[in-house]
Amino acid sequence: MGLGGNDYNNINNVNANDNYNNNGRARANNPLQGFPLMKTYRRLYKQLYSWDNLEYSYRKARLHKTGNPKIQGFDKKWRLNLCILMRELRERTYTPTKLTTFILRDPKTRKICVSEFRDRIVHHALVNILQPIFESRFIYDSYASRKGKGTLEALDRFDEFKRKVAQKSSSGGGANAGKCLYSRQISNTTLTLSIMEFLSGSSKIE
Fold first, then answer.
1. How far is the C-alpha of 101 from the C-alpha of 114, rounded, in Å?
2. What is the dihedral of CA 193, 194, 197, 200, to 10 degrees?
């Protein structure tokens, strides 16, 4: 599935330095393993929009979702679409699409926010860069979007704590528990600035 002449005309600003991949094969392993992530965390942004990172992120974003019509539309000219996305990121003109929101009742009522497919590619690209840096700093009982963890593992951990509480209660003790939607209370601006300052020591990531 190659690019036609018209497609190449549309990406005339994407030059050979972008390491354009013509064979269409995704690398079996994370290509970012070859990037040295130094403690100073320099040149992270260039790694973000590298072809290898974007193609790897595209493969991850579409995994088990190839029946989605929007993804199928992206697939038809995926190299061209990735080149356009790469150019937008490189030139810092990329803007995320407004989220699609709906209410799901199953039976718990939840507000679901869905990103466009090209935005999910960027999400994966960011995780590929940042997760190796932050992974060792997460507490053990953080289960969202981490390798080897997830909903089932979180439920198993909850059952473990529940058994401990039950044992304590049967021996005359007690326990207090509560819940809080903590993520909704965090200012996105404050969180973003904190991450950037941690990575670069300033409010700008190089």
1. 6
2. -100
What gap in Å lies between CA 97 and CA 119, rounded to an integer? 7
Cβ-contact 168, 175 below 8 angstroms: yes
- What is the torsional sign of CA 160, 161, 162, 164? positive
pLDDT of 68 > 80? The answer is yes
Q: How far apart are CA 8 and CA 23, in angstroms?
A: 16
- Say how far apart CA 44 and CA 200 lie, in whole Å: 10
Contact (Cβ atoms closer than 8 angstroms) between residue 87 and residue 14: yes
In tens, the pLDDT along 85-100 reads: 999 999 999 999 999 9
Residue in 117, 129, 134, 145 with CA at minimum distance from that of residue 31: 129
Nearest to 121 by CA among 72, 185, 178, 53: 53
Q: What is the CA radius of gyration of the chain?
A: 21
Residues 6+ apart with CB under 8 A from 169: 175
Residue 117, number of CB atoms within 10 A of its CB: 20
Per-residue pLDDT tens digits for 166-203 = 887 776 655 565 555 556 667 778 877 877 777 765 44
Q: Which two tokens stand for residue 146?
A: 């981490």
pTM above 0.85, yes or no: no
